[in-house]
Structure formats: C-alpha cells, structure tokens
Q: What sequence folds into this?
C-alpha cells in the first residue's frame, strides 16, 4: 500500500434520484465536518422526482477549498445506469465501493474495488419493509466510515444532526450503518491510500448553511413583510425557508397573527406584481425566482424602475436560455437582469459570492431598494443557493432600517403641500415619496408607468420625459457608490483576475496553485452593478486581466469593456465555463498558464 | 351658495379628479360620476383610498376621481397583483380597482381569477364595452357571438362572462350593472365598497366611438332594450338606521360584514336568492339564452373570510412594523446560528 493521502479527496455517491441517498450523503458530510475536517458538498441532481441519475460530491481538503474539484477519489456506485461512466470518471488510485452485482470484468486496473452486495444485505439484514429502499443507502455510510476511518461517534453525530426534527429515525438508520460496518469487518480490507484523520482548528465555530437559507434569514432581518413567489428550481427553497422561519419567529404566540405575508402567486408576473404593489404601499417586499421567471418579470421590472417603486428580486441562476438545464448552475443572467425591461433601464444588481453575502446582501437590499426607490436584484446561483457551505456564523445587524425619503403627514404639512413626487430636491436624483394612507389631503399622488412630470402628472412632453430619464441616470450614479464595493486583493502583480459570484472559491484556489507555480495573480471580485470606479483603477494597475465567469458570452467581460476607457479595453481576456457545473480551479489555472506562457511581443 | 358636506365634512368636490380625456358620451365617464357620488355619500376618507388600474380607457379613469387619493396605473392586465400587494402592505386601505374587458377578460384573466380565489378585500370594477377603444375598435373577449364590429366583422367566438367566472371561482360579491343606470349602480357600488372580500362589478359601459352602432350588443340602445334588472337595490350604511318598512316578501335584505345593509326590492317574477351560487349561475345563463342582459346583485357571501384574515395578518398594517417587530431577537438569531453548526 502506498503512503496514505490524508483529508484530501472528493467523495462521490452515484445513486438514483428519489432513492433516499440524500440522507446518507448528508450524514457522511456532517460526520466528516464533526471530525474537524473542512467539507464542501455539491449536489448534482436531475430535473426529476424519481428514477434519473443523481450524484453527490463531498470535497474534503485540509485547506478548506470549497470549489468543485471533479474527478472523485472515492466513489460509491449504486446506479447501474451510470456505473460504466462513473467508474471511468474516478482518478487513478481511487476507492470504488460498488454493488457487488456490477461487473468489474475488463474494468480499470488502476483503482481499488470494494464490492458490497447492497441489495442482498438490505433484503436479509434490514427488517423494515417500508424503509428498506432508503436504509440500503445507510449501509454504504457504514462501509465508507470503515473505508475512510470515520469514527462511529462522528457518524452518530451526523445521524442526530440530520434527523434533528425526527430523532426516532436515528436508531433505525444507525442499525443500517452498522450492517455496512459489519460487512466491511467480515469481508473487506483497506487497499487504497485515502483516509480521514480528525483535525483541529479548521472548522471551529463554523456553520453549514445553504445560500437560499442564508438569504431567507437576510430577508427576515432586513424587515421583509411581503414575500410573493412562484415555485421554480433552484429558487423555491428561498421563500420556503422564509415561510419556515416566519412560522417560528414572526407569529404572535397568543393571537396567531403573522407579521409577514408569504404568498404563492399564480405565476412570476403576479409574484413580482404583488411585491411591487406592497413596496408602493410601504412594505418591504421581495420575490425570488430563476431565469424563466426573470424573463416573465421584465414587464413589471420596467414599471418599478420607471414609477420608482422599491422591491427586491432574487434570481437564483440556472442555465438558460428557455428551460435550459433546470438543475444546473450558471451566471448567464447577468447582462439580461442588468437592463431588464424594454426601453432604457438599468438596475442595481447585487452579486453575492458567499453564503455570508447571501445573508447580508439580502438584508441590505431592502435598505437600498427603499433608499433608491427602485428594483434591487440579488443574483445568486444554484451552486451557491442550494448547496451547503461552511461559514462563520452571521452577524446580528446593528443598524436600524433605512426607509429612504418618505414624507409623512407632518412633513407634508410643514411643506404646506408644496412637494412633487419626482422633484429632485436634493440633486442626487432621489426624490421624495408618500405612502397611500398618509392622512393629509395633499399627500396623494398618481403613480403610473406612462409619461409623467416632476409632479407625477401625466404628460407626453418629450422634454419632461427626457428630464425624468436624465434624473433617473443621476439617481443611478448616486447608487453606484452605495452598492457593495469590489473586494480587491492586489500584491503588485501585472496579472490579475476579475470575477463575481460563486466562482470566488475556484479563483482563490487557482491563485494558490498559480502562486505555487511562481505566478502571483491579483484579484478583484465585483460585488455589484453598476461597476465601481475601482474596477477601472484595477485594470489600469494591471497589464493582463482575466475575467472569469460561468456563461458562454462573457457577460461581465462585456460590461467591463463598456465601462473602461478605450485604451484599457485591450488588457482584458475572457475565461468562460458553461457546462452547468460549478467551475473548478483548473478551468482557471489552465487557460491563464497557457496565455501567460506566450512570450510578450 | 351652500355646499352640502358629507358625514366626514367633505364636499362632493373633494371626490372629484382631473378632467376626463375620454370621448364625450363614454360610458366610463358616467361610471366615474357614479363612483364619485357613491364615495361622497359613503363618506370614504380620501387618504384611505387606493385607486388601482391596468391599461386601457377604463384604466385611465382613476385619475378622474378623488384627486387627493393615491392611485396606481400599472401595466396591462396586472392590476390584481398590484392591488393584492398594496392590500397586504396596508390592510386599512380601501382598494378600488378599475379595469376593462380587455384588461380583465384577455391579458389579465389569470390574475383576475386568482384575485377572486383569494377573496382579496377590494372592489373590482370592469368597465365592459366589448371592444378595445385605445387601439381602435378590435373585439374584446366579452363581445357576444353575432355582435358586429364597426367595420362589419361579425364575432363568432364565445364571450367570456366575467360574472360567471367570478361566481364559479368563489367570488363573494358579484354584480352586473349598466353605466347608464345610476339608480341601480350607486347602491351596488356602495355595497361593493362596504363588502369585506372581493366585490366584482361587471358594468356594461358603451364605447360611443367604436361600439355603439347597430348590431353591437354593448350599445346604449341595445342595453336599454335588453336590460333585465332583477332587483331595485338600496344601500343603508352601517351608521344609519334601517327606517323604511318593506312589505313582507317583496325584498331581500343582505347584511354586510360591516353592518351595512343592501336591501333588494324584487323587480321580476323571478325570486332570486343572491346567496345561492347555483341560482346565480342559472340566472346569468338564462339571460344569455333569452338574449337579455340580466343586471343586479347576482351573488353575495358577506361573511366569507377575506385574504388578509385568512393570512392571519395583524391589525397593524405590515408596512408600519419596525425592527423590533420584524427582526429575530438576538437570542432567536443565536439559536438559528447554533442549529446550523
């Protein structure tokens, strides 16, 4: 046996969708996390309820890398339909746990096989007829625990944690785990080099949370009181988490009254329409969707932009166009969302790259929407939104809500009614509004998506139209410095990367790899649109800048080129990945090394 | 000249809006006037009113009444969603939606239906002229089979009967009326505003420019000849005593949730029970079969739970809640964080 490889592997379970393997994978992941070893789980699932292939990966690394690495070192193969391809995909030296019935004749000789008669064991060792299918998967938890040296206490912790809400399930599942352990003890022997050893200091105090769950908490902490949505993968869980947390924390235990309305709308049009109606009437309102829903929301987004109504819109991106690959990740909505609607429109778009930012950007998006009286988009993606990520616990907000420029009855009285909904009193493009229900005869105004003047009166005057559009641009420029600034990590290298969103993990890992090879790469992470002036400065400070993103057309690359003065445009190159899987670090290192190897002319 | 003030001390002028930009003689202008009368007589506080609309001639009318109230003229067919959101944010608002047959029966049919399903507490007026006026005279989905367009084209498609749709989906106040029949319409409008829940009024409102000719079934002449009012309604607000004694058996008294009454005097040999859903559907269908426009209160269910109540919203409007009401406490937040460890 070769030297052990400790705490550095990608585990992959290949199973059939709907068979209950999620619980097993979750238990394994939580057990490893309990050992103090950093984990980065990725669920790769089909658009299907039952029957299609599904994979679950847990990347384990001592450094705590959270990007997808691909090609696993430990495989659990329980899907005959993908067995051949799954086997082909593992790295040399991998441990392959598989259903004993699968043929290994003429199979690869550079991996180690651990055949386990799962079906047979489930039939003979598991008494529970109803749960046999699910419990079969727990058998592989036992086998993998033995294979990788995961202590029983860690597995028990994983079971308790996973079945937090139904503790009765723990002993039944533990029995099934033990069937796997016993089978290992009696029939199998360690051959491969991969193993896990408890670590100190790497995961202390960290939590595991999904981006959508984090965003839901952010919405509640941001004071959201109206959440209207239409089910769509990968966004549904965001509003479902809002509903779950709201049931716990927004319900008056005595009266049963609920301090939020969570409404499942009839479609995405209505979902956004309700949020806009609520925002207009003074509530903090949001909706959440994914690409196909965003397409439907274009019309209402234009209304909210032009009539200046605060609203927060989450887009948990998946691959388009059209239905695309509904359960695969992407950053393909950036350009579309930025200018969503017909006519001249541009929007504030927040670009969280971590689950912490899913939380804090969600929370702060409501302040921005109120301050700038406009739609604020939060662009997450399937990888960030639906997978669990390690992070420090979130911080409790210390600031009160910023409700923006709202005139109440007393303020209108003080102004003796001399106010106009779209008058730019402060010169920042942001005007004052009143809310319906304000008890003053001069508080009312008429909101419309048609042409209007400074006093909100209907007009078809070209001059009034242009004045209003120019003011909206002024407002947008004010907002440019209010949205989250880019994060810059520069060490004076002539080479740099610009990226946004969930690719941050792969970029950070790629930088370590490149540094190990002698190439220092600086990094700017864009965290919002409109782009900050800091982006221009950063490009000016670097000779060659690689823009990394997960879409075909280089949408951020294009936006930055439009943003830059023409003499800097030539410094940019584009690195794009669009296969629906979270980008791995080597998809960044490889093209950079190739391009950097070209001698300078 | 003395000005008569209503119960909250406002003159009728306080309920007026900007001058109409619709055609002279448009049925919608009559409806606007009837609305002004209803709101004035009811003593609705203008600041509590939210006037909502979509796109089309009808949707312009919220600018023509109660100038001091907030109004929102949104996008085509989407008034119900905006209205729902506004009402969720502030359940104290009296939300009044004005739409047309194009805005409701075609592009907005889905939202119309779902608004009804939810029984949102609002008044939903359809100013129904069977035609697209602003785009110059195309048929709408409420045009009757055999109705003739100004250019001579005959409609061969089944109309969507908005009252039938509303009753079928559980609408809790469904009435049909005619823009030219203020005597019937004003009390129905008052009752609709007083009703807790969705109140749908399909009001035939002739388009003098594109659909008032011979062969149209939405013309003044046709409606005058074919209107079959089933009741003569009078509205008694909750703050007034019922003073008139009605001869037994000649009236139906509908007591609304807020204590107001809509007294319906029978005008027809038909003894319509407006709380009977099946009968309501039948009366509409019988009218269709005999070529009559049946008007009056078709269906009402005064005590049905409205959306805000069903959603268990607090008395205090959601939009007035602050950090202390909305954020998790530090303890709760810490609890959530520890669960995620």
A:
């Amino acid at each position: 046996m070769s030297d052990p490889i400790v705490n550095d592997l990608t585990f992959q379970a290949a199973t059939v969708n709907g068979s209950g393997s999620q619980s097993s994978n979750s238990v394994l992941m939580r057990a490893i996390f309990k050992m103090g070893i950093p984990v980065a789980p990725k669920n790769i699932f089909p658009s299907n309820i039952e029957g299609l292939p599904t994979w679950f990966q847990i990347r384990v690394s001592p450094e705590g890398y959270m990007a997808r690495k691909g090609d696993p070192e430990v495989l659990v193969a329980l899907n005959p339909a993908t067995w051949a391809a799954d086997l082909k995909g593992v790295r040399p030296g991998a441990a392959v746990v598989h259903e004993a019935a699968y043929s290994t004749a003429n199979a690869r000789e550079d991996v180690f096989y651990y055949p386990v008669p799962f079906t047979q064991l489930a039939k003979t060792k598991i008494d529970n007829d109803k749960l046999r299918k699910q419990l079969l998967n727990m058998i592989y938890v036992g086998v993998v625990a033995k294979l990788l040296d995961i202590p029983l206490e860690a597995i028990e912790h994983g079971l308790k944690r996973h079945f937090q809400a139904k503790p009765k399930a723990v002993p039944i599942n533990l029995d099934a785990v033990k069937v796997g352990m016993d089978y290992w003890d009696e029939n199998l022997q360690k051959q491969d080099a991969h193993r896990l050893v408890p670590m100190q200091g790497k995961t202390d105090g960290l939590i595991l949370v999904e981006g959508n769950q984090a965003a839901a908490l952010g919405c509640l902490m941001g004071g959201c009181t109206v959440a209207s949505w239409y089910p769509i993968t990968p966004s549904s869980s965001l509003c479902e988490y809002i509903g779950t947390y709201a049931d716990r924390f927004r319900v008056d235990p005595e009266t049963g009254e609920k301090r939020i309305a969570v409404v499942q709308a009839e479609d995405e049009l209505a979902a956004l329409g309700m949020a806009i109606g609520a925002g207009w009437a003074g509530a903090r309102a949001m909706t959440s969707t994914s690409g196909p829903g965003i397409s439907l929301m274009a019309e209402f987004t234009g209304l909210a932009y032009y009539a200046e109504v605060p609203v927060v819109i989450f887009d948990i991106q998946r691959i388009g166009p059209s239905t695309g690959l509904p359960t695969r990740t992407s950053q393909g909505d950036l350009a579309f969302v930025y200018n969503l609607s017909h006519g001249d429109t541009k929007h504030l778009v927040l670009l969280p790259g971590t689950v912490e930012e899913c939380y804090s950007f969600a929370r702060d998006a409501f302040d921005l929407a109120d301050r700038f009286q406009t739609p604020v988009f939060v662009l997450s993606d399937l990888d960030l939104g639906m997978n669990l990520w390690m992070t420090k616990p979130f911080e409790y907000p210390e600031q009160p809500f910023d409700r923006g420029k709202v005139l109440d009855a007393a303020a209108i009285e003080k102004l003796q009614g001399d106010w106009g909904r779209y008058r730019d009193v402060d010169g920042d493009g942001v005007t004052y509004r009143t809310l319906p229900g304000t008890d003053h005869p001069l508080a009312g105004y008429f909101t419309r998506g048609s042409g209007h003047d400074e006093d909100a009166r209907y007009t078809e005057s070209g001059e009034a139209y242009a004045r209003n559009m120019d003011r909206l641009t002024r407002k947008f420029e004010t907002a440019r410095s209010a949205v989250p600034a880019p994060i810059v990590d520069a060490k004076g290298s002539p080479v740099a990367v610009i990226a946004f969103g969930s690719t941050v993990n792969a970029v950070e890992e790629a930088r370590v790899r490149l540094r190990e090879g002698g190439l220092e790469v600086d990094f700017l992470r864009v965290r919002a649109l409109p782009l900050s002036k800091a982006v221009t400065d950063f490009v000016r400070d670097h000779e060659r800048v690689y823009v990394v993103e997960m879409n075909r057309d280089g949408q951020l690359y294009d936006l930055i080129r439009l943003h830059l003065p023409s003499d800097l445009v030539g410094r940019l190159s584009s690195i794009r990945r669009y296969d629906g899987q979270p980008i791995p670090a080597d998809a960044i290192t490889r093209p950079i090394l190739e391009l950097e190897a070209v001698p300078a002319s | 000249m003395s000005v008569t003030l209503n119960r909250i001390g406002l003159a009728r002028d306080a309920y007026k809006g900007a001058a109409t930009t619709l055609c002279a003689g448009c049925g919608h202008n009559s409806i606007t006037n009837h609305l002004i009368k209803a709101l004035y007589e009811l003593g609705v506080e203008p600041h509590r009113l939210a006037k909502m609309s979509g796109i089309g001639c009808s949707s312009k009318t919220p600018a023509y009444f109660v100038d001091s109230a907030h109004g929102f003229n949104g996008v085509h067919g989407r008034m119900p969603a905006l209205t729902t959101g506004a009402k969720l944010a502030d359940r104290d608002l009296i939300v009044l939606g004005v739409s047309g047959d194009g805005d409701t029966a075609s592009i907005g049919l889905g939202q119309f239906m779902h608004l009804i399903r939810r029984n949102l507490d609002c008044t939903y007026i359809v100013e129904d002229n069977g035609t697209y006026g602003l785009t110059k005279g195309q048929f709408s989905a409420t045009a009757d089979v055999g109705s003739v367009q100004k250019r001579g084209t005959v409609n061969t498609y089944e109309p969507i009967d908005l009252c039938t749709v509303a009753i079928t989906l559980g609408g809790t106040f469904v009435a049909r009326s005619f823009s030219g029949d203020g005597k019937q319409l004003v009390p129905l409008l008052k009752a609709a505003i007083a009703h807790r829940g969705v109140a749908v009024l399909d009001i035939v409102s002739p388009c003098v420019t594109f659909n008032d000719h011979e062969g149209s079934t939405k013309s003044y002449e046709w409606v005058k000849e074919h209107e079959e009012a089933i009741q003569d309604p009078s509205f008694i607000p909750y703050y007034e005593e019922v003073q008139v004694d009605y001869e037994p058996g000649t009236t139906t008294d509908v007591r609304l949730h807020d204590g107001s009454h809509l007294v319906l005097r029978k005008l027809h040999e038909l003894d319509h029970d407006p709380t009977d859903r099946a009968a309501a559907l039948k009366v509409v269908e019988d009218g269709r079969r005999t070529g009559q426009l049946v008007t009056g209160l078709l269906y009402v269910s005064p005590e049905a739970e409205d959306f805000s109540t069903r959603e268990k919203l607090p008395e205090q409007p959601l939009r007035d809640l602050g950090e202390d009401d909305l954020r998790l406490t530090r303890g709760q937040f810490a609890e959530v964080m520890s669960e995620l460890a």
The domain at 487-597 of chain A is CATH 3.40.50.920 (Rossmann fold). DSSP finds 21 helices and 24 strands in chain A.
